[in-house]
Specification:
By secondary structure, the chain is mainly alpha-helical. It is built from twelve helices and no strands. The protein has two domains: 1-43, no CATH class; 60-264, Orthogonal Bundle (MetI-like fold), CATH 1.10.3720. This is NitT/TauT family transport system permease protein.
Length: 266
């Protein structure tokens, strides 16, 4: 069965509309049928959230840019560290055996507990955002990049070595291009997580950022701003994901062709 691009958009539209209508019905049921006094806080009408979002878009955008910019810097640093670690571990089995358990153990520390520690050490909110975003990013990037580097068939490497190709050239011409799809998989996982981590750091006492808007709206009981801020946070995560998707399509055009072929077959 072949699905055209127009039909995929129609499916997405039907899904979005169905979810929107379902939430409207549930909010109506909660407020007017069950007469829940906390209905507006538990599940507000989606159209009211959208209206509040439109009316406050400038302040929400300013707060979002503060959080997103720091998350982007941390994401870049974390991705660089992750790639470097993956290359080191692919070059040396000993390095992999030493570093990999520590990589896994590093992810056992909850961000909620680590963020205050980082803030108390560096005493700078912007730097804390960057460090936490980098911390969240490096693990999925390093693991996926390492998987890509290790997936290269030994026969191909042996062929290059047989014609006196240097290790650097083997990585440049074979292993890095082969592992790019794995790398972008890790980047797509890490990007929304870096944004979420940056929002979490906002709540530790920052003066600006979308996390601050969420926290203040909770304290002041302004549920409309709270939900609009949550909606902004979700849009930031979606935006970060699609930035990576666009970068992947631009840098790996053969992947875009393969995805289209896969999408056409159901």
């Amino acid at each position: 069965m072949v699905i055209t691009k127009k039909e995929r958009r129609m499916v997405a539209f039907v899904w979005f509309t169905s979810i929107f209508v379902l939430l409207e019905v549930l909010a109506f049921f909660l407020m007017f049928v069950m007469k829940d006094t906390m209905a507006a806080a538990k599940l507000p009408f989606p159209h009211t959230i959208f209206i509040v979002f439109v009316n406050n878009w400038r302040s929400l955008l300013e707060a979002g840019v503060i959080t997103f910019s720091r998350a982007a810097i941390g994401f870049g640093i974390g991705a660089g560290v992750g790639i470097f670690l993956a290359v080191i571990m692919s070059l040396s089995k000993t390095a992999e055996k030493i570093a990999f358990p520590y990589l896994i153990m590093s992810q056992m520390i909850p961000v909620l507990g680590l963020a205050p520690i980082i803030f108390n050490i560096v005493r700078d909110m912007n730097l804390s955002r960057i460090i936490i975003a980098a911390y969240i990013t490096f693990f999925p990037v390093s693991v996926n990049m390492l998987s890509g580097l290790k997936s290269v068939e030994q026969d191909k490497k042996d062929l290059l070595y047989s014609i006196a190709t240097s290790k650097f050239e083997v990585y440049r011409k074979l292993m890095f291009p082969f592992s790019m799809s794995y790398l972008f998989t890790g980047l797509k996982i890490a990007a929304p997580m870096a944004v979420t981590a940056s929002i979490l750091v906002d709540m530790l006492g920052s003066r600006g950022g979308i996390g601050v808007r969420i926290l203040y709206s909770l304290y002041s009981n302004t549920t409309d701003i709270f939900w609009a801020s949550v909606m902004t946070s979700a849009l930031m995560g979606i935006f970060s994901f699609y930035v990576i998707v666009i970068a992947e399509n631009l840098l790996l055009p053969w992947r875009r062709g393969a995805s289209k072929k896969d999408g056409e077959k159901v």
